[in-house]
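Translate structure to sequence.
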């Protein structure tokens, strides 16, 4: 059974995927716009010796997401025409999405500890804990993708959020959120002049941390199967774009941006603890 005309974007899609191609395409264009803006900001920061590693991580996460959406657009376009799509390319798009989320998560945890904002490097203990957490997150994310391919019955209407690894990732997101807030409190106690940035940063990024568990609950226990995939896919794209857009706004190098976090040049990255204000630089 097919829909509309053979050349339509909806031709071979089932009802739970009906609008997934136009929605994915729209978010791909939106992410490209964010990428262009982020590139211009990167050039400005570089000219001022303020292009720190944390901003580079943001840029990497953004590129991963753009690649993911590009692959999704291709595979959904092919699927619309032949009803088969490109399974390998779809899998690669999911891998890139997980890489984007994981890179952005690392970025948030590093910034919460003041890395490149109030300090030039983390303690050995801090790096060890962060490395262990990231490694665990990567393993569980990979397990989730494998679970979808090897465990789920293709004859049933299922979604990746129903897998056991998806629940573990949701728990890890909440653990990361608690760690994120705790690190921000410690950083703000030591560097009071950064409280304005961290207040906005923690408030807006809390939504990003909680989005994963909330979306999982809604996908598994609230949404019907016949609307779940397109709704969850759209919401996930929106959440990723939200995180990138918030970070871009907070780091926009403008005199009107009172939340701008970077005040130390990249030439001072060797300092264990950065100066507390611009006049100490």
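Result:
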């Amino acid at each position: 059974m097919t829909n509309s005309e053979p050349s339509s974007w909806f031709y071979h899609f089932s009802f739970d995927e009906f609008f997934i191609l136009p929605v994915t395409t729209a978010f791909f264009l939106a992410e490209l716009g964010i990428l262009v803006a982020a590139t211009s900001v990167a050039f400005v920061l570089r000219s001022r010796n303020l292009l720190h590693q944390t901003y580079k991580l943001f840029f990497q996460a953004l590129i991963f997401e753009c690649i993911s959406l590009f692959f999704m657009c291709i595979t959904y376009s092919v699927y619309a025409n032949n009803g088969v799509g490109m399974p390998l390319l779809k899998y690669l798009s999911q891998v890139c999405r997980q890489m984007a989320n994981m890179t952005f998560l690392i970025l948030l945890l590093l910034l919460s500890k003041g890395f490149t904002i109030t300090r030039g490097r983390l303690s050995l203990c801090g790096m060890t804990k962060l490395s262990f957490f990231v490694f665990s997150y990567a393993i569980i994310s990979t397990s989730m993708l494998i679970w979808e391919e090897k465990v789920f019955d293709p004859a049933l209407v299922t979604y990746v959020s129903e897998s056991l690894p998806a629940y573990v990732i949701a728990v890890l997101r909440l653990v990361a959120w608690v760690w994120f807030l705790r690190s921000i409190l410690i950083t703000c106690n030591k560097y009071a002049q950064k409280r304005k940035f961290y207040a906005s940063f923690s408030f807006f990024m809390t939504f990003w941390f909680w989005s994963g568990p909330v979306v999982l609950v809604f996908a598994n226990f609230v949404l019907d199967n016949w609307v779940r995939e397109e709704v969850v896919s759209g919401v996930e794209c929106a959440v990723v774009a939200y995180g990138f857009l918030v970070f871009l706004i907070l780091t926009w190098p403008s005199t009107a941006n009172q939340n701008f976090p970077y005040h130390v040049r990249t030439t001072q990255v060797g300092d264990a603890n950065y100066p507390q204000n611009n006049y100490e630089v």
